[in-house]
Amino acid sequence: MASKVELMVEVKSAADKLWTALRESTELFPKIFPEQYKSIETVEGDGKSAGTVRLLKYTEGVPMVTFAKEKVEVADDEKKVVSYSVVDGELVDFYKNFRVTLHVTPKGAGEDGAGAVVSWAMDYDKASDQVPDPDVIKETAAKTFHDLDDYLLKN
Known about the structure:
Blueprint: E1 2-11, H1 15-23, H2 25-32, E2 37-44, E3 53-58, E4 67-76, E5 81-89, H3 90-94, E6 95-106, E7 116-126, H4 135-154
Antiparallel strand pairs: 1-7, 2-3, 3-4, 4-5, 5-6, 6-7
């Protein structure tokens, strides 16, 4: 049965700056979040467009997973929307379908410096009733957006 988890996070960074950082996560996240990511590499495509496949290798400190392969389904820089499905890794054992959609919008009237809102949604189907709800994934996403915001405000 299909389920959905949603999250909205307000950040102080400008929408354009945050969006750029999210789109450059292949290079940026292992540097900013070495406690989470050993590496992120593009294995198919250009690293950003629909059809791109990335391999994420997690550190020992990340619960339940060692790696994930994600395929970019939608990438719209103008609307600041990206959507990807997890196609390989331990998460596939827990969730038959696992798709995340991310949308960044400016907060307030101006594009500059007024902050942004990150809308994050995860659509999934549990592989069985024993699989827990993905609360840990939602909490990790929220922490990542806040930590990325802190990094961007300092750099």
